[in-house]
Write a structure and sequence with these properties.
Radius of gyration: 34 Å
Strand content: 15-25%
Helix content: 40-55%
Oligomer: single chain
Number of strands: 22
Shape: flat
Structural class: alpha+beta
CATH topology of the domain at 138-244: Chitinase A, domain 3
CATH architecture of the domain at 138-244: Roll
């Protein structure tokens, strides 16, 4: 099987849990020394590799719960897993996979991910989490006007944009209507303003860029904020309303899709269908049953139309308003339309905001990805400079002005133009960064940009260079400062090697080795059998009258398509037909007519429909064709290849385990 990068990243920390093995014994334990002389007994040797107690215990306790850890059965089972894991890692190292460029790049990528929690100020982040949670207690309804200006714009252009937004604000403060001004041509650079007057509706924390969010939450109802700068430009914000957060709601829905290119007849049929479903609900039919049968949202229809919890700003506005307007559990709305189609919404439950402790992990994940995370990074940089005695001579950046030309604005500046610049610019402890390093940084970070003042651009580059160098220096010291980080990196290293080699020897091989897979199937085809099956059609009729009409059309030898067209002429809900091959036990009505022929009328207890089954023929048990069982065959073939491979590794790397040392592991 071809596993994605995501599945790979998920399996690396628990790679030890995927394998099987056996243990040999050794009488006398060799000993390794760690921590400046402290002894750490060798638990096992695998080929020439010695595994100490501390190495094993670190992984064992991390991957076993407290109740299982120390249990002899659990320990022995885990020893088997661990040995197989180390056998594969040994083989990967023997083959030089740990020296491959692709391996080093991938491990470097994981290192950057794992390092992120260490490369920020935790105290600042904690304050940001609490600020975010406090803001989530309130929803804000606001409008805005935007004057665009690039983050890298010249001071003159930035000042022009600022003055423009100030003049717009002055008009509003003198009494002009905010939304009318926003809708004027040439005023707001938000393209939607001409239609909505800059009205953003209600929003809450984490739904706008951080500077905008902060300005909105710090502005009183009815007031217009001072200009606030975001990456889009300058905004002014008028806060119209504040309300207590409406919390979250869980609903179910029945949807009839309305594709953009549908015909008038299709549109009318869709409206008729949702109206008929609504009338059935009012007549007492169960929402879950109708959702399962008629909703075009197939993901939710399997669960009675149920959707995940959502809050402000997460759904189309019409859907959100309808959902939150429902008062009592079980209430359902009239049909309403969004850009996706027609919906009927049923309230399942409502809840307020969860506690800070319950939301903390989710907030932490969101804040880390949000622009406000830069505050934690900035604080870390300040601490790094202090801890590692940062010293600089920023004026040396000015010496680059003489070697700059217009190619810098095209992203084509050549580093050789700065070949004479080599002075030290700054340092962290004894790590010195020179003008040559800065020249290389410019080369690798340049891109097309608006023409500007060279000094301004160089100052931007220099600031970025110092900041990235500070973070990189701190990252380079994580293994020394945090033992748990070093241990985790070792796990990821071994996990990547395990994955790559297992993919070569087992997973991809089983998929690509068609001849071997087919040969395995031929030897074991009796393991892949079809049960007795029925080739049948199930007619679900809304009433006895419809069933009678269906039988009349069957006698006339009408096709299923023709029968549907006639019977559903007045209502799309009169008849549904399902034709396929059914396994025994898969459909109760097919089971009742497990012989060729047409059944008598049967009544569904679930929805009171009249059911007719036409069983065309019965298919006897037989081995599945290779193409029909390929998924199961591939999985079994992988297991076979795995066992064969492990046996060869055991022969190549003899395994010995000291039982006496093993008995000391708790």
């Amino acid at each position: 099987m071809n596993l994605s990068v995501l599945s790979k990243s998920l399996m690396l920390p628990v790679a030890l849990l995927t394998i099987n093995c056996a243990i040999a014994q050794v009488k006398k334990p060799p000993v390794a020394t760690i921590d400046g002389g402290k002894t750490d007994a060798v638990l096992m040797t695998i080929g020439a590799t010695k595994v100490t107690v501390s190495e094993f215990e670190n992984v064992y306790h991390k991957n076993n719960n407290k109740d299982a850890a120390g249990d002899s059965k659990s320990l022995n089972e885990y020893i088997d897993l661990f040995v197989n894991f180390k056998l594969k890692v040994n083989e990967a190292e023997e083959l030089g996979l740990d020296t491959a460029r692709s391996f080093k790049e991938e491990l470097g990528g994981y290192r950057k991910q794992l390092a992120q929690p260490y490369l920020t100020d935790k105290d600042v982040n904690e304050k940001l989490l609490k600020e975010t949670y406090d803001r989530l207690q309130e929803d804000i309804h606001a409008s805005h006007i935007l004057v665009k200006v690039s983050e890298t714009a010249l001071p003159k252009d930035t000042l022009d944009a600022y003055n423009k937004i100030l003049k717009i604000r002055a008009r509003i403060l003198k009494g002009e209507d905010f939304n009318k001004v926003a809708a004027e041509k040439g005023v707001s650079d938000d393209p939607s303003s001409k239609d909505n007057g800059g009205d953003l509706g209600f929003f809450t924390a984490l739904q706008m860029v951080y500077p905008f969010e902060s300005a909105a939450y710090n502005t009183k109802v009815g007031d217009v904020s001072m200009p606030v700068r975001t990456r889009y430009g300058y905004h002014i914000i008028k806060v119209k309303e504040r309300r207590k957060a409406q919390g979250e709601v869980m609903v179910a829905h029945i949807m009839v899709k309305t594709p953009a290119n549908m015909t008038k007849d299709d549109s009318l049929n869709n409206f008729t269908k949702i109206t008929e479903i609504y009338n059935k609900l009012k007549s007492g039919s169960k929402f879950d049953d109708l959702a399962a049968e008629f909703s075009d949202d197939k993901t939710s229809s399997k669960k009675g139309g149920e959707l995940p919890w959502f809050g402000t700003g997460k759904m189309p506005l019409e859907f959100e308003k309808t959902a939150f307007a429902l008062s009592n559990r079980g209430d359902f709305s009239q049909p309403m339309r969004t850009k996706y189609g027609w919906h009927i919404v049923k309230l399942i439950d409502k809840r307020g905001l969860a506690s800070f402790d319950d939301m903390k992990n989710d907030l932490k994940s969101k804040v880390t990805k949000d622009s406000r995370a830069q505050a934690g990074r900035a604080s870390l940089i300040t601490k790094v400079k202090a801890e590692y005695k940062f010293k600089e001579n920023p004026k040396l950046a000015d010496e680059f002005i003489g070697v700059m030309d217009s190619t810098l604005f095209d992203g084509r500046w050549d580093i050789t133009k700065a070949k004479g610049l080599n002075k030290p610019m700054f340092n962290f402890n004894d790590k010195v960064f020179t003008q040559a390093d800065f020249a290389n940084f410019i080369t690798t970070h340049q891109s097309k940009r608006t023409k500007s003042d060279f000094k301004l651009v160089l100052n931007q580059f220099y600031k970025q260079f110092v900041e990235e160098s500070a973070v990189a220096y701190e990252e380079s010291r994580l293994d020394q400062k945090y033992p748990e980080f070093k241990s985790l990196m070792q796990e990821y290293r071994d996990g990547i090697l395990l994955f790559e080699l297992t993919d070569q020897k087992v997973w991809s091989k089983a998929v690509k080795d068609t001849l071997g897979s087919k040969a395995y199937y031929e030897k074991n085809k009796m393991n892949y059998m079809w049960d007795e099956r029925a080739d049948a059609s199930v007619y679900s009729c809304s009433s006895d009258k419809i069933a009678l009409q269906v039988r009349g059309l069957m006698k006339k030898k009408k096709s299923e398509k023709d029968i549907l067209a006639v019977v559903n002429k007045d209502s799309q809900l009169n008849l549904q037909i399902e034709t396929r091959i059914f396994n025994k036990g898969e459909n109760e009505f097919v089971d009742k007519n497990w012989n060729p022929g047409t059944s008598a009328d049967m009544v569904s207890e679930k929805d009171k429909k009249t059911v007719i089954v036409v069983t065309n023929k019965l298919l006897k048990p037989e081995p599945k064709a290779y193409v029909d069982s390929k998924g199961m065959v591939t999985a079994d073939y992988q297991n076979y290849l795995e066992k064969e491979w492990i046996a060869s590794l055991k022969a190549k790397y003899p395994v010995t385990i000291d039982k006496t040392v093993l008995s000391t592991i708790k």
